[in-house]
Amino acid sequence: MNLKQLEYFLEIEKEKSFSKASQTLHVSQPSLSKVIHQLEEELGIRLFDRSTRHLRITDEGKMMLIHAQQVIRAADDMKKAADDLIQRRKGSFLFGLPPVIGSTLFPDVIADFRATYPDTDMQIIEEGAKIMEASLLEGNIDVGVAILPVASDLFDVRPLIQKHLLLIVAPDHPLAKEKKITMKELRHERFLMFQQGFSLYDRVREGCIEAGFEPTVIHESTQWDFLVEMAKKNLGVAFVPETLCEKMDMTEVGVIEVTDPALTWDLALIWRKNSYQSHATREWIDFVEESFRAKK
Fold first, then answer.
1. Which range is least confidently modeled, 127-131, 151-155, 236-240?
2. Residues 254 and 274 in one domain
């Protein structure tokens, strides 16, 4: 058994097709079939059911899939460790940063880090927190920022700050003069939400459900400033992080604390549990933690 066999196995399952996988891997379909047949012979089980019109992974194949993914990730970690020994401090890493978080909290930290470590190449990948978690598990990025909680059995966590989500309404909204309300008072409101794939979407929806209702979502966006402007025009209500309210001019909107439940916004650095982290990545994790600690 070798890594090539496992990589081919994973690609076939990903594409659900020998022909598509052969194109992606740039090998002939007969060669690919031969490699998988050899792997099945070594394991003593069938990985795929080829008797139907559409290729299906077998139950035994599903179990082997988990082990194959672990082996490939371990091999990737070994390669990263070797590269780190060669590069030492002149390392590189991929940092996942949700746009809502990045725009308010990280520009200064990133600038300071690059001034301190000019030889380190940090590539920033902007994507929603939930999508970023999947990217971490797949090994596509090294470390990212998440909104807690996350699965503790899948990720190592370094907490950064604890904040809340606040409600934004138009100045002429019936609730605009209120300082604090309960979530159930929003039962009949129209919601302006961050796009699905953002943790903020899940956090607001879960809070509404906990209060006994499913929110009526009329618009989703990746841009917090657009949501605020929409709320200002009384097109709906929006939840935004407390840090945004602290940095923006909110004199033209109502900003309200919501309870029962209160929506927390606890940020942390996370990375795949027990994965190898390069020297550069470890330096970044420590640098970010110290930067946020100094701001408290």
1. 127-131
2. no
In this structure, the number of other CB atoms found within 10 A of the CB of residue 62 comes to 11
- CATH number of 54's domain: 1.10.10.10
pLDDT at 28: 92
Query: CB of 233 within 8 A of CB of 119?
Result: no
Q: Global pTM?
A: 0.62
SS3 content of the chain, % helix, strand, coil (to 5): 45, 25, 30
Q: Which residues are bridge partners to 193 per DSSP?
A: 220
- 85, 118, 144 - which closes a domain: 85
- If you average pLDDT over residues 201-221, what whole number do you get? 95
CA–CA separation, 94 and 88 (whole Å): 16
Residue 27 burial class via C-beta count within 10 angstroms: exposed 0-12, middle 13-18, buried 19 and up = middle
Joined tokens for residue 67: 């082990």
Structure tokens at 291: 């930067």
What is the span of the domain harbouring residue 40?
Answer: 3-85
What are the CA-CA distances from residue 31 to residues 20, 28, 42, 229, 256 (Å)? 13, 5, 17, 57, 63
